[in-house]
Amino acid sequence: QVQLVESGGGQVQTGGSLRISCATSGRIFSNYGLGWFRQAPGKEREFVAASTWAGGGESYYADSVKGRFTISRDNAKTTVYLQMNSLKPEDTGVYYCGKTRFSSATDILYRQTSSYDYWGQGTQVTVSS
Fold it and tell me: What are the distances in angstroms from CA 125 to CA 70, 88, 91, 120?
């Protein structure tokens, strides 16, 4: 079965840091790409970062978070992390972990919401002004 469980969200001040986690099963972790998307109230879900399993592991980031966020994998814990630094109020939203519907693809597809077929419950991240 597909397991995607996010945790680690919370409230921080502008400029602060937060690390959120997405725990998965070994089958999911070692066969599919894993991505982070976020959704603010009244807004569409948007791409944040993604990590591939194929090709030795590649990372992709949205322009808005490049240089501030880092996605990583812990093989022992079959968990993907999103380290968020220099947080801004516009980073506020519910962060979701998703599993790709494919084992590997082009970088463009990893950035698209439609490329993910399963999602976790989400974890709230609030950055205070």
Answer: 16, 11, 8, 15
Cα 77 to Cα 22, 72, 74: the distances in Å are 10, 12, 6
Q: What is the mean pLDDT of residues 87-97?
A: 98
Residues 6 or more apart whose Cβ sits within 8 Å of residue 106: none
What's the Cα-to-Cα distance from 66 to each of 7, 19, 28, 71, 104, rounded to whole Å? 22, 16, 26, 11, 22
- State the number of CA atoms in the 13 A half-sphere of 14 facing the CB: 5
123-128 vs 10-13, strand pairing mode: parallel
Residue 79: count other Cβ atoms within 10 Å of its Cβ.
18
User: How long a stretch of residues is the chain?
Assistant: 129
Note the pLDDT tens digit of each residue in 36-59. Answer: 999 999 999 999 999 999 888 899
Rounded to 10 degrees, what is the CA torsion of 32, 58, 37, 15?
A: 150
Longest Cα pair distance anywhere in the chain, in angstroms? 40
